[in-house]
Amino acid sequence: MFAFNFNKITMPIFYGKAALIEFIHSVKSSDSTIGFVPTMGALHQGHLSLMQQSLAENTHTVVSIFVNPTQFNNPEDLEKYPRTLEKDTQKIFELNPNIMVYAPSVNDIYEGKVVSQSFDFDGLENQMEGKFRPGHFNGVGTIVKRLFEIVSPTNAYFGQKDFQQLQIVKKMVSKNHLDVTIIGCEIYREANGLAMSSRNERLSDSEREQAAIIYQTLLQAKEKFKTSSCKAVKQWVKEVFDANTNFDLEYFEIADEETLIPCDEKIKDKNYRAFIAIFVNNIRLIDTISLK
Ligand code: PAF
């Protein structure tokens, strides 16, 4: 274990799983709970809000910081993904120095074999992100399962911005009978509505401002969905972005929240959600909104 020191206060940071497992074992008792927030670093207020929720609901909190290579289908995206470990540990320290930070190497996780396990998520993996990012969810399933084995959390916290990921993690937990409760947390947004994301760091100030259109469009789509068909709403969103040359729409989809199957005809009593993925100057952003 290494410790992050500040004004004689120390925060435990683990670079290897053996020491983390031993430390968790030493602090865990029969009535304690471990809250876990898995991240890929470049922490923003959205991540910190997950940690706050975990701190409020558990006796101990573990945060992992690991840019997982197997979930990137685009090598340039992996290479450019921001890595800011020092700043991240400072932010966690300021939030609460009792949080345990796990920042492993690729080898500590993959032990020489950087490959994904193959999962069956009952079709959740074939929609939206799964269509455009082949292999992505096998990578997510692999790392999340591995981290759960190491941390043995009672509760694990995931942001709803990655709603498909959240459903996939829930499915993985139920299919593998893992003893962990998955908690989906509200999307944290910047003042202009842009969903917080580590990728926002790569946007220029003006791109960040313009990207407000993503959430504004989702809000309007939600309004239109009250009186229009799925097809009409999808066509309207397509036209919005066809008319805006600063954005390259990858997909806009309306799908059943449970199965993620795209909506063709609206079915009464089903909960629908809109999903969007869009490029701004080669930077890929996603967002989602409940249409209920
Ligand atoms: O959402 C993320 O940041 C990642 O997909 C996760 C869950 C930390 C797995 O690498």
From TrEMBL:
Its EC number is 6.3.2.1. Its main location: cytoplasm. It holds the Pfam family Pantoate_ligase. This is Pantothenate synthetase. The keyword Hydrolase does not apply. Belongs to the pantothenate synthetase family. The gene is panC. Transmembrane segments: none annotated.
